[in-house]
Amino acid sequence: MKGLMMHRPLKIADIITFAADSHSSGEIVSVRTEGDIHRTTYKETAGRIAQLAHALQGLGVGEGDRIATLAWNGYRHFELYYAISGIGAVCHTINPRLSAEQMIYIVNHARDGLLFTDVTFVPMLEKLRPHLPEELRIVIMADRGHMPETTLEGTLCYEDLLEGQPGQMDWPDFRRTRPPAFAIPPARPAIPRARSIRIARPSCTP
Question: What is the pTM of this model?
Answer without folding.
Answer: 0.82
